[in-house]
Amino acid sequence: TAYRFADYAAIVGGRLADRVGMWITMNEPTVVTSFAYGVGAHAPGRTLGLGALPVAHHQLLAHGLAMQALRVAGGREIGIANNQAPAWRASESAEDQAAAALYETIFNWLFSDPLLLGRYPDGFAGLMPGPVEEDLKIISAPLDWYGLNYYNPVRVGAPTGAVRHVDGVEMPSDLPFDLLEIEGYPRTHFDWPVVPHGLSEIIGTLRSRYGEALPPIFITENGCSYADGPNAEGRVEDRLRIDYLDGHLHALAEAIDDGADVRGYFVWSLLDNFEWAAGYEQRFGLVHVDFDTLTRTPKDSYHWYRDLILAHSTARG
Asked: pTM of the entire structure?
């Protein structure tokens, strides 16, 4: 499948390389691994648990092969988008610290270490299929930029065997860690905690872990779901989305002031969309979509974000 993905990339690159300025080979391989193959919440609905780890390797290999194909086709500015977030330990106990470190390794470093360091975290290479060392040479070819999707931190503790739900999905009770609720923060319609400083925290962690090996960063996704719809006058007053974006952009500015090489920021999303397993229930867009009539209504956040971009463009000349 990884090699067929490279064939696909070659076809797309051959047709569009002269028009596309930036390429993302793969989006959120950690989510595909865990939710599609680990716990079965996304298609194809496999429930392999930690047996899903080879899926991570095949996606990373597909990325590396696709990058080769795109470069041959004349593609430029090629990166990958990883969904990464801080793992907050539930306490200072040794058990909670170990559980949080394992979670962070599986969901963060398993996907960025091979790309940026050319190796898997300790103990994981032996769990991967195929000629791993040869594959890692393909996987770790230099990126033009590194994509980071950020939504919220995760609070992790030692395993208790309790039944937990993440994004409405029941997690296996035999996981080697427990996913706990983050309290004390406002929450989105998706029940995700709103933690803007988590964005600057994960950027700082990436810089600390990878140093000179970390390419320029693009925030390839950041946004929130709220169920706001048009009022009687046809206006969508989504103040909470504006507050969310404003808070995260300020956190991003702090990271840049601290020396992070961040080249761009993309809101998720322009339009309300079909959101993986959640379907049409969650609305992330700056533009409201009536899914029956397909009428599109720019929300207040759309106008706010447009004006923000214009102000920054004007200030920069």
From this structure: 0.96
